[in-house]
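Action item from last week, closing it out:
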Amino acid sequence: MTPTATGTLAKWGNSQGVRIPKDICELIGIQVGSAVSIRADQAKSEVVLTFEKPDDGYRRSRKVSMEELCAGWSGERVGEEWGGPDVGAEVVD
């Protein structure tokens, strides 16, 4: 069964707008800022919204070592400015 909802066309600045219920947005994977194409069919009094396929998010295809991540680094070595190799460990004297 296709989810349906009702709404009211409302004034939104110099335009008009209809709110899309959260459960329908979640169902098709859209969120605020999603790109949409709007097509109007005057004969049928229809407005069709087509959203771009949602991005599945960032996925790394493989694990990357710290050496690979830092391979192009040409700056100073980080961690020795405090007097030793205790990077990430708190040392209290």
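Closing note: Residues 10-51 form a domain with the Pemi-like Protein 1; Chain: D fold (CATH 2.10.260).
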